[in-house]
Design goal:
11 strands, four-stranded antiparallel β-sheet, 3 helices, alpha+beta, 233 residues
């Protein structure tokens, strides 16, 4: 009986350690526009990253290139707001395209080799996340992780791929291939280290979005501490 109790206790300790050590993907955000002639190589880069294990790649399309004559059909006002917040948080002089933000912690120009070793490696101490579909609802479980600073739980939906034939602006005459295009971005609430769950009706997601990503990000758009994705269609 004593040995059985010891084995159960040991199993619980291993399960707890596994939850604490859950690997979190590297999150790469691209700020891009179909009206920017420097962006297609960065879009191709997102396509390549999306096929790598341990990476969640997201393309946020901005609207400030519209004045050159081409309105990006995937632009979202929230993309510009998020990019501006990163500029403030990362002490950047301005926003620009194509910009990559890695794990909410650093940025670089998109289209080139990723600096550092973060992309694809995952993080040993990611916030435990579980996503499931039940009765036409997305169920999100955020595990406990004590002594964690306050975070936002964010829901992102995206369209994996699209092709656009651009007729005006800097990319006039080109056929552009876009990848992991963000179609919606919603804050689900706060998380402060205690186990918590959220439920989202699938009907609330854009009809062209086929995959969702949940991000656990430190308040005021700090580093991303956890991420997970799930197909919804």
């Amino acid at each position: 009986m004593i040995m059985r109790s010891a084995l159960i206790a040991c199993s619980l300790m291993l399960l707890t350690a596994a939850a604490w050590g859950q690997s979190s993907p590297t999150v790469v955000e691209l700020y891009t526009s179909e009206g920017c002639s420097s962006c297609p190589p960065a879009e191709a880069q997102i396509g390549e990253l999306s096929r790598q294990d341990g990476v969640i790649a997201l393309a946020f399309h901005v609207d400030y290139w519209d004045s050159l004559g081409w309105k990006d059909r995937f632009e979202l006002p929230v993309a510009v707001a998020r990019q501006k917040q990163y500029a403030q948080r990362l002490h950047l002089a301005s926003i620009y395209t194509p910009q990559l933000v890695i794990d909410g912690a650093r940025d670089q120009v998109g289209g080139g080799k990723l600096a550092g070793t973060g992309a694809g490696a995952g993080h040993a101490a990611g916030v435990p996340l579980d996503l499931a579909i039940n009765h036409n609802q997305l169920q999100i479980s955020v595990g406990a992780q004590p002594q964690t600073s306050a975070c936002d739980v964010l829901l992102v939906s995206y369209l994996p791929e699209a092709v656009s034939k651009v007729t005006r602006g800097e990319n006039a005459g080109r056929e552009l291939h876009d990848f992991n295009i963000v179609r919606s971005f919603t804050s689900l609430g706060s998380w402060q280290g205690q186990a918590h769950s959220f439920t989202v009706p699938l009907s609330s997601l854009p009809s062209d979005a086929t995959t969702v990503v949940v991000l656990v990000q430190q308040k005021d758009q700090g580093p991303i501490l956890g991420a997970a994705s799930h197909a919804v269609r």
